[in-house]
Fold this sequence. Notes:
With 210 residues, chain A is mostly beta strands. Chain A has one helix spanning 145-151, and strands at 2-3, 10-11, 109-113, 118-121, 126-130, 142-143, 158-163, 166-171, 178-180, 183-184, 190-193, 198-201, 204-209. In chain B, the strands form 3 sheets. In chain B, strands 2-17-16-10-14-13 form a 6-stranded mixed beta sheet, with no helix packed on it. Chain B is globular and about 70 Å long. At the A-B interface, loops of A face strand 3, strand 16, helix 7, helix 8 and helix 9 of B.
Amino acid sequence: MVTCPTCNAQNDPSAGFCDQCGTSLQGASLAPAPGVYSPPLNPNYSVGGVICPQCGAQVIPGEMFCENCGAALGSAPPAPATGGYAPPPLAAPPSPAPSYTPPPPVATAFLTGIDGQTFQLSGKTTYLIGRRDDVSGNYPDVDTSDAGLQAGVSRRHAELYQQGVQWFVRDLNSVNGTWVNQQRLASNGSEAINYGDTIRLGKWTVTFRI
Amino acid sequence: MSGEVTLATRLNRTVFQALPTPQKLYVLIDGVPTGEGVSVQMPVNLGLVLDRSGSMAGDKIRKLREAVKLVLGQLSPLDQLSIVLFDDHVDTLVASQSVTNLELLYAQIDRITDRGGTTMSKGMRRGLDEMRRGLAQDRVSRMLLLTDGETYGDENDCRQLAAECGQYGVAISALGLGEDWNMPLLEAIAGQSGGVADHLATPDSILTEFKRTVATMQGSSVRNAQLTLRLVAGVTPAAAWRVLPAISQLSQRTLSDRDIQLDLGDLEHGKGQSVLVELVVQPKAAGSYRVAQADVMYDIPTANLTGQHVRQDILITLTDDPSQVTPFVADVMNLVEKVSVFKLQTRALNEAQAGNVSLATQQLRAVATRLLNLGEVDLAQAAQHEANNLEQQGQMSAAGTKKLQYGTRKLTQRLDDLDG
């Protein structure tokens, strides 16, 4: 039998790790420094001092999402070059709703391309769609640079804006034109758009959703 | 013989910080049948129990006929098929038989038309009776139960029949078409029989789902799989989730104070299952340890193999030096995140059902935010929409509830699986 250097449990000679405490039985380098190991605590040990920043519930270190409110708890790891995992941002705390208030106008809209690429629009009242151009300092809210150049999207092609609860698209005198559901807009003309409508800029097509 | 199932385990980091408090870590366990001996196509005993009530008229019944014909094309003379139709009466369209005379079967399928009300238990009773004639040790048996509405006054009979199906090893795939079916009932039927429930939003999805179910049955050469986790002292399991092929919570059987067992059921060739286990590890000094051993036991009836094992140690490394702590393992964390959204969504639906409108609304809004982060725009909008419904009308819509419940289960599915 092999005696575990950590907990003194007797193990089968072929065992790679102690059956009792999991310590490696191969080679001294992996064994913990003597005297540092403390025996396991009660599994019901209550965690003190670590709380969810969103709802205040107690959480266990290492927990990635709060069991109570679902908030993301992970701190951002050092960013790896590619393919790394970035925890989602902490959601804004829900505002208390003591009495009923009518819902605000829809403030967030989405444009989804045929390749599945989705642009989320929120926080402004007007959004420019076009191609980024560092030279002229043109930085549209919806940057079609990847596919837009080949599809004939102008640098400043069109804009989306909201009046009350209604969304509109306006062509900005573009070279290759703007369409809503197969209907071409007049130059500088605008058109109301609704959930599911198709918007085409040159040959670049997206679906509008709120 | 062994090696038919490949077992792989990964943690959410490779090197963790040694902490003075307990800490939680996540283990992803993949069990995939890959060996040559498991790539055979399994003979199946398929029972179709189909709702042909008046509400199925039109596109639904047309697509249903099409789907049944598609299924016929997937079957071979080794397979056993029965088809039972129910409204408030029940008819055996195809008595349990091997799939040999395709032309005759096609002609019978054309006779599926809509009529009458819905009494589902009659269909299930007849369906099970037919399927019992096709039961065999090396056949995968499954009942495909399709309905688009409520059954009338026989819900308890349906539950009892589902349990009886489970005893015969007939798992039920309970498929609800459209928005007007009884979700708790189909969930109970699936659960009692060891099967799954699913939501078919449109008649078109009948074809995809029927085809996929038969393919899964035919690929399930590894059966009765059980995952045992042998934990060392100071390590306790917090929860276990099946993450692939779809998210569901796995119930744990405690074998002893340090062993837990999870029933996995059938493993499909080349796909298998992935399980995410949350473990709480008590403080340990820096070093490398085994926290658990994963052991999958399984049978391969076609090769006359029972009680085969594959084992894998789950090791952690703890360090005192924060700079040595490795970044998160991206694909494990991605699954952790999806499971957490599923958990939160489940809690929100439960709170809404219990009448805790304000809490459920908050939770649904959090679900919407998290779904957006995952790029699930459609589901995020559904969650937001249902949060608004709850706030304004005090209840969620039936359609939205189903979309969320079944949509979040499939967050982990790869796109090619969805197409299949």
